[in-house]
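hey all, quick one before standup. I had two proteins in the batch that finished overnight and I want to keep them in one place so we stop losing track of which output belongs to which input. First protein below, input sequence then structure tokens straight from the run.
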Amino acid sequence: MNKSLDIKNLKVAKRYAKALIEASQDNIDDVANDLELISDTIFKNDAFRMFFSHPVISLSDKKETIKETFQNKINKTTLNFLETLLDESRFNIFSTIYDVFKKERNNLKNIKILDVYYAYELDDEQKTRLKDKLSNKFNKEVILNYQKDEDILGGLVIKFEDKVIDLSLKTKFDRLKKINL
């Protein structure tokens, strides 16, 4: 995809996400849950995704499908937002809007999401200590997503946003190899 098109979509997505956050101040967690349900239902299902992106299918059919699929499952704010996206031919950037919304919501709620890669499973005490240390370091509530990665040999690699904290044995060994050359 064209990079300038991506930047344009990101700018538009930021405007929509900001508007949704403003509209959902009283129920922002409910809207976040709704968006996750929509993402899981529509954008992880090829048939749904193709239905909503097909130009021949009418706007009214798409709106009716949204209502039938999510009626009594999502709140009115979210349903109105989806209809607005359809009306303004912006449904194709829903995933980007959702990503921006999650980041902004987490900022508002003082939450930081971190991915933790490990070679060997951490016990509950280690996970608690790590969470406490990272919460103190960032002065935020942290949510840790754990993923096994045997390539790091031992230790941890922590990724967030576009940053990496690499405490892995593999990196330490690689540094030693460079010194011994």
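OK second protein, same deal, sequence then tokens:
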Amino acid sequence: MDGYMEDYVAGSVHEYGSVPVTEEEVVEFARRYDPHYFHVDREAAEKSPYGGLIASGWHTAALMMRLLVDNFISARASLGSPGVEKLRWIVPVRPGDELSIRVTVHGTRRSRKKPGIGFVEFSVEVLNQRRETVMTMDTVGMGLCREKA
């Protein structure tokens, strides 16, 4: 999307993807940022409750963010986000998975203090190739409005 805050429509649903999850990236990310044994050691992970290597939840979130930035968040108007309301990891992500996202816009509003800025409330579901929801997030995006109020 390349528009302003007014271009986000409450109730709209958008789907984007996919991005592959490779074993090399799972291990590389985890070694650097989240070195739990079930993210970095295939043999030990096979003996874990997960029965094999799984991606860090933060890696899954990073892949989701890439899909959001490439497809949903406006390159022209985005000002980032004041934060995430809810983040849930539901199903483990494994090497070989293909992830996509479904974004639902819940509402938009203008800033009272800075009328040239608006907020969009939306939720994201991260889906694997079997259409299972592996992660969910509720958040608010902040961006420029086309016109000041």
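Flagging for whoever picks this up: The chain has a mean pLDDT of 95. The CA atoms of residues 84 and 121 lie 10 Å apart.
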